[in-house]
Specification:
The chain has about 120 residues and is an alpha+beta fold. The protein has one domain: Sandwich (Immunoglobulin-like), CATH 2.60.40. Helices cover about 20% and strands about 40% of the residues. It is elongated. The chain starts with a helix and ends with a strand. The relative contact order is 0.25.
């Protein structure tokens, strides 16, 4: 009887380990918050992210408008899929942001795979 309980215990530990190891990875998200020069969140601002090749980030470009909360959200899973298995999955971006002004505010951000990374841009108007 003790052998059966022990076997069930070992099987339950094994099953738990397998279930947790097969869990899907969290998405790789970059959120850029855009604020006016008065620090109010800005809806409808243009946000462009460009991979910084000088920091070994693969070539990447995406552009979005900020939502009603002043946030542009980028899913970077496709970018991080390009990295090798043993590479550190960190990406660096130049961020170009424009509200009502004619020119862009430029900043830099960093993102890691399977995390939600954030950056804030204060528009120079």
């Amino acid at each position: 009887m003790a052998l059966t309980k022990r076997t069930l215990f070992v099987l339950s530990i094994l099953m738990t380990t397998i279930l947790f190891s097969c869990k899907e990875k969290d998405p790789s998200i970059l959120k850029i918050y855009v604020r006016s020069n008065a620090y109010a969140l800005t809806e409808g601002a243009t946000v462009r992210i460009v991979g910084d090749l000088s920091k070994n980030t693969p070539e990447y470009f995406d552009e979005k408008k900020t939502n009603e909360s002043g946030v542009a959200i980028f899913n970077l899973d496709g970018l991080f899929d390009q990295y090798g298995k043993d590479e550190e999955k960190v990406a660096y971006f130049n961020v170009y942001t424009k509200g009502a002004a004619q020119y862009y505010t430029v900043t830099q951000v960093r993102s890691k795979a399977h995390l939600i990374s954030t950056g804030t841009v204060v528009l120079e108007e």
